[in-house]
Amino acid sequence: MDKLWPTIFAVLLVLAAFALIWVGWRNRQRRQAETLPLPEVPELSQAQLSVPGQYVATTTEGDWLDRIAVHSLGLRTQAELSLHPEGILLARRGAPDLFIANGHYDGVRLESGMAGKFVEKDGLVVLSWKLGEQALDTGFRTQRAADRGPLFLALQKLAPQDPAETPTLEAQELDSTEKDG
Predict the structure, then answer these.
(1) What is the number of domains present in the chain?
(2) 23 and 54 housed in the same domain
(3) At what angle do helices 145-158 and 169-180 cross, to 10 degrees?
(4) Which residue in 71, 85, 156, 172 is a FRET match for 181, CA 20 to 30 A apart?
């Protein structure tokens, strides 16, 4: 009997925590209800590059904590990122695939974290793109570190930016080394 009340209190506390998490996620989904649905994945040509890894999350561009909760964009899943002539495909396990058409893709950068996932310096490949008028960032972590450089360079070539203004992988690494030192 002495242990019954503390046990009941602990169980109620855990249930209350889960209820608050659920309410918060539901409210986030309501606030983001105007987010357009994901585009259908078109018939794609042969992949030019395919890299296995982890889909981290999609956030509002520039706000790495504002995870997009609707359309399963906030769910972390195993994924394969593939580059096609038509655009970029994130084939996600347990969630709808995410297709970013070339005309909606804005650029790529390396980050150390976003929306609850933090890794070593420049360990995440972050794609900037638009869903309708909404600017978004999507994080992807390659399964093998050796795949990150070739993926970054291939994504950089797809970006509509002026190549003279786009930093190279080596320039980003040099810049981060100077900031650390």
Answers:
(1) 2
(2) no
(3) 120
(4) 156
Structure tokens at 141: 């972590």
DSSP the chain: -TTHHHHHHHHHHHHHHHHHHHHHHHHHHHHTTTSPPPPPP------SEEEEEEEEEEEETT-TT-B--GGGTT--EEEEEEEETTEEEEEETTS--EEEEGGGEEEEEEESEETTEE-STT-EEEEEEEETTEEEEEEEEESSHHHHHHHHHHHHHHS-S-TTTSPPHHHHHHHHHHHH-
Residue 5 lies in a domain: yes
For the whole prediction, is pTM greater than 0.90?
no
**Residue numbers of the chain with a pLDDT score lower than 70:** 1, 25, 28-29, 32-33, 161-181
